[in-house]
Amino acid sequence: MNKYESVVIINSNLEADALKALINKFSDLINTDGKVTSVEELGNKKLAYEIKKQKEGYYVVYKFEANPQLISELERNYRITDEVIKFIVIKEEE
Q1: According to the 3-state scheme, what is the secondary structure of the chain?
Q2: What confidence tier does 20 reach under pLDDT thresholds 50, 70, 90?
Q3: Is the pLDDT reported for residue 94 higher than 80?
Q4: Of 5, 11, 6, nearest to 84 (Cα)?
Q5: Is residue 65 a contact partner of residue 10, using CB atoms and an 8 Å limit?
Q6: Full-prediction pTM beyond 0.70?
């Protein structure tokens, strides 16, 4: 398994319960074929430029270990989730 880091920017207009549910949804998805080592919620931050008519976003950083096949499924889920403004998945060097 490889080590990865994923930064997700979520719509900051979400209710607290919906936000927690979304964060847990992605954690559970990663845990199906990998292992989440940490989830760091950085909170609301101002975006450098407007994305999808949003000026702020809620930042979440996932650090995890997973098989490479999981990454395409994870990115697909990020893309189809309307609340996700931006995301990136990076493979960490050994």
Answers
A1: CEEEEEEEEEECCCCHHHHHHHHHHHHHHHHHCEEEEEEEEEEEEEEEEEECCEEEEEEEEEEEEECHHHHHHHHHHHHHCCCEEEEEEEECCC
A2: very high
A3: no
A4: 11
A5: no
A6: yes
Cα within 13 Å of Cα(70), Cβ side: 24
Cα-based distances in Å from 34 to 31, 52, 57, 67, 74 = 5, 31, 27, 7, 11
Query: Residue 18 in contact with residue 12, Cβ under 8 Å?
Result: no
Q: Are strands 84-91 and 2-11 parallel, antiparallel or unpaired?
A: antiparallel
